[in-house]
Design a protein that fits this description.
By secondary structure, the protein is mainly α. The chain has one domain: Orthogonal Bundle (Ammonium transporter fold), CATH 1.10.3430. The protein has 18 helices and two strands. It has a two-stranded antiparallel sheet. Strand 1 and strand 2 form a beta hairpin. Helix 4 runs parallel beside helix 6. The chain is globular.
């Protein structure tokens, strides 16, 4: 067994062994409410929403797997699916603490704003119990809040896999998603969603369900990954299974109701509105995408219809609970047109982003944030409801988040590549990652 695999094995077994000997502290009672404050309808909905969001990761694996060539289908699907294991363990050990622990950051006008959470607050889910937290998920058990947020952390690095599909070594990918979760996702999650996070609390930027935290971070990391790992030797291939793509799109659309409507953290009117705007934006984007393709002289295809639907889901995410139903049509329409144009832009075609992750999630997330900054109906949180200064705050944060996500992801890849070679050898790329990385193929399963 090579030293890198030994290291991965030791890291895997370390967490359960350490957790066995961990001394559990008593909950800090002033941070928690009582069981009488739990709302059972909210608990039922968040349990359901958590299951829906979990389903999105297998859906993503089908969505991506059907797009790549047959010799890379299993590997591509596993790259998404394995995130359920890697990020879940990491989230319990320290990821949740980094994301929602007490703020570590800067003090402005006597108020502390967090850049990242204290890693010693909730290690191994210490103090994460059935009591509701007074500031986060106030009507549900804190453990349910933590698990719901975990599903977002799981799918974010899985999204990135589409950019360097068909040429990345699996062991290098495992290390990358773990480091990305701690150094990119967790700080953004804290700054946007923690009650004292710098981006949300100080700059007033709203992100209902992850347009900034999930899609912009993953989209820019995808661009970094495609640039760093480089082009495939043979970038042209036929999709292995369009039916997988359609099935994966359906699972993503279904799961996205938990993703967006669940982010209301209650069985309430906001959840219902997020549910409605989510499906309307996706439907609008799908139809806009295929009709725009037809206008450009391209055929209406099942693959492109599915991509359009997913872009509609991406673009509505940061605003789902903050806008009206007519406005959701605008999100789907503009998001689809801009992402479609980005996908076919010549300068982006020069970058081998295998499954156009940047054009769909990166550009879609950026469009979602811009439109949210214009339309979001939350007190003083957009151009229409807070003036130009609020809008410019959103645009400043957008630039900073994009630069941080791209720069940090590229740095992670650069440093990691010094220790673990990230790109497969040319002969392995030729025979496909299914056989070279996993010893499996479509013929053997």
């Amino acid at each position: 067994m090579k030293i890198k695999w030994k290291l991965a094995f030791l890291i895997t077994i370390a967490a359960p062994l350490v957790s066995f000997f961990w001394i559990v502290k008593e909950p800090v009672l002033e941070n928690f409410g009582t069981e009488e404050q739990l709302v059972y309808a909210d608990i039922a909905w968040l349990l359901t929403a958590s299951c829906l969001v979990l389903l999105m990761t297998p859906g993503l694996s089908l969505f991506y797997g059907g797009m790549v060539g047959k010799k890379n289908l299993i590997s591509t699907m596993l790259q998404s699916f394995i995130s359920l294991g890697v990020v879940t363990m990491l989230w319990v050990v320290v990821g949740f603490s980094f994301s929602f622990g007490d703020p570590i950051g800067i003090t402005i006008d006597g108020v502390k704003y967090g850049l990242i959470g204290n890693p010693f607050d909730f290690p191994f889910f210490d103090q994460v119990s059935v009591l509701p937290h007074k500031a986060m998920g106030t009507t549900i058990p804190f453990v349910l809040f933590a698990l719901f947020q975990m599903k977002f952390a799981v799918i974010t690095p899985a999204i990135i896999t589409g950019s360097f599909a068909e040429r990345v070594r699996f062991i290098g990918y495992l290390f990358f998603i773990g480091i990305f979760t701690l150094l990119v996702y967790a700080p953004l999650c804290h700054m946007v969603w923690h009650p004292q996070g710098l981006i949300g609390a100080y700059f007033g930027v709203v992100d209902f369900a992850g347009g900034t935290v999930v899609h912009i971070s993953a989209g820019l990391a995808s661009l970094a990954g495609a640039l760093f790992i480089g082009k495939r030797k043979n970038p042209h291939h036929d999709p292995s299974n369009i039916t997988y793509v359609i099935l994966g799109t359906g699972m993503l659309w279904f799961g996205w109701f938990g993703f967006n409507a669940g982010s209301s953290f209650g069985a309430n009117g906001t959840a219902a509105m997020a549910f409605a705007t989510t499906t309307i934006s996706s439907a609008t984007a799908m139809m806009t995408w295929v009709l725009f393709d037809r206008i450009q002289g391209r055929k209406i295809s099942a693959l492109q219809a599915c991509i359009g639907a997913v872009v509609g889901l991406v673009v509505i995410t940061p605003a789902a609970g903050f806008i009206t139903i007519p406005q959701s049509f605008i999100f789907g329409l503009l998001g689809a047109i801009v992402s479609n144009m980005a996908m076919h832009a010549r300068f982006l075609k020069k970058i081998d982003d295998t499954l156009d992750v940047f054009a769909c999630h990166g550009i879609g997330g950026i469009m979602g944030m811009i439109l949210t900054a214009i339309f979001a109906n939350k007190a003083g949180s957009s151009l229409m409801h807070g003036g130009w200064s609020v809008f410019f705050s959103h645009m400043l944060v957008l630039i900073c988040v994009a630069a941080f996500s791209f720069g940090m992801s590229y740095l992670i890849l650069f440093v990691l590549n010094k220790f673990v070679t990230l790109r497969v050898r040319e002969e392995y790329e030729e025979i496909g990652l299914d056989l070279s990385q996993h010893g499996e193929s479509l013929k053997s399963v």
